[in-house]
What does this fold into?
Amino acid sequence: MKETLAKLEEFHGHLGPYVVVGCRMGELALRLLGAKKYFELKIASKAGTTPPVSCMNDGLQLATGCTYGKGNIKASDEGMPEAVFIQGARSLKIALLPSMQAEMGQWLRQDGERTAAARVYELKDEELFEWEFMDTE
It folds into this structure.
C-alpha cells in the first residue's frame, strides 16, 4: 500500500482520495477485463477537468498506463467519478458509489487528504464501486 500511495503522490503532486479512486478503478478494470497495461484498453472518463473529481484521471493513468499523450484516455466534463473501460468489443463501466462519495467528503473534512486517501485505498472493491459489463458493438 505504501509504495502505491507514494507513486500516486509523486505523479499527482499530492495525495487525495480521488486520485486513489482512479487508481483503484483502473486496477479493478484491468483485473475484470484481463487486460494488460498501456495498450489493451481505452478509457472514457466522466471525471472532467475540475478538481477534486478530475484527480481521478491521474489515478486512472497511473494504474492502467493509458495516457492523454497516447490518446487512449479521454475525459468528458461531467464531473462524475465514473469511467468506461473499452477492450475490443467489450466494455466495463465502473462508478464510485454515491454513498462513498459522500463518505469521502466527510473523511476529507474530518481527517484531511492523506488519511482520507489511505482509508479509500484500504476499502474492498464492493465498498467503493458498482460496475457492469456492456457490449460496445
Q: What stands out?
A: The beta strands are 42-45, 73-75, 82-87, 90-96, 129-135. The domain at 2-135 is CATH 3.30.1330.130 (60s Ribosomal Protein L30; Chain: A;). Helices lie at 2-12, 17-33, 56-64, 98-111, 113-122, 125-128.
